[in-house]
Design goal:
Distance between the termini: 13 Å
Largest sheet: 4 strands, antiparallel
Number of domains: 1
Strand order of the largest sheet: 1-2-3-4
Order of helices and strands: EEEEH
Length: 69
Amino acid sequence: MRNTFLISRLVTPFGIFRVSGHYDNKKDLEIINLDVMGTDGWVLFNKDFDKKEELYLHIKEFLSTNDEF
């Protein structure tokens, strides 16, 4: 079963992110919207970010350790 999630503020070593999407049993992850906190507020995440896979692992870890989603 696919569940919808919204993380309004995820603090990582790469910055502060707002992320939403779908996950299946907290393993398969589909990110629909990913924003990063900039100096003027939320801005669209740069998909060419070289640490993207590591960021996805942070999101998966967050989902797996928080039952509220």
